[in-house]
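Go through this one:
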Amino acid sequence: GDTLWVGTDAGLIRLDKRGAKLFGEADGMPHRVVNQLAWDEQRAELWAATMGGLARYSAGRIDSFTQLSSGLANDVVYAVIARDGDIWAPTASGTSRFNPDQDTWEIYDHTNARMNEPWCYTAAFMGEDTIFVAVWGGGILERELAGGEWRVHHDPDRQMEVDLLRDDGLVSDVVSAIDTDGDILWAATYFGLCRFDGLRWRTWSTKDSGITSDFINIVRAEDGLIFLATDQGLGLYDGNTWTTWRN
């Protein structure tokens, strides 16, 4: 609507016609550093992933969820996604799935999701039934939302800093972010960019393209436009041309 929510390293900010209001730990936030926000359309609630837990803003009230008070896998929450009534929270010790209506939690970590390390950075959905989870040092996990086994996408050569064979899979198992655009998965790593269409992989690096940098923190994909937040500036790829904006 007419409200803008901003996550900062000093708290959660609400901007509207009345001005700006800061919500911090004194207001119920589990931590002042906010990593990501998600809006739950079904319940008209805002969720915040913080460095000290998960927060929910609903009707002027903030509820805090931590490892000790809920089924959250870890208090270091890197991302939060609201999807079909569930709240997904990738954390430093696995990914939690919370259904507020049923008050039920599930945790996916190295004990049940084939993770080499349970350090989860973010998640993305494809279509109505598939979730992907980016795992630090563990590649990308894929699973049907209805259940079943997790499929693992690894760097085939398992060389963290070297891509021995181009387009053979993930360029690196250090996956910092993922996003989907239709039936295409995009993966950002600290050693290049990857694209997966369900059958084939394609990879890009500074050695063979005009990509802004191999060190990518965030990827966003929409309508064929790929935006990259890197250590060398903001990058854009439209399928043909690479563009970079720097300070």
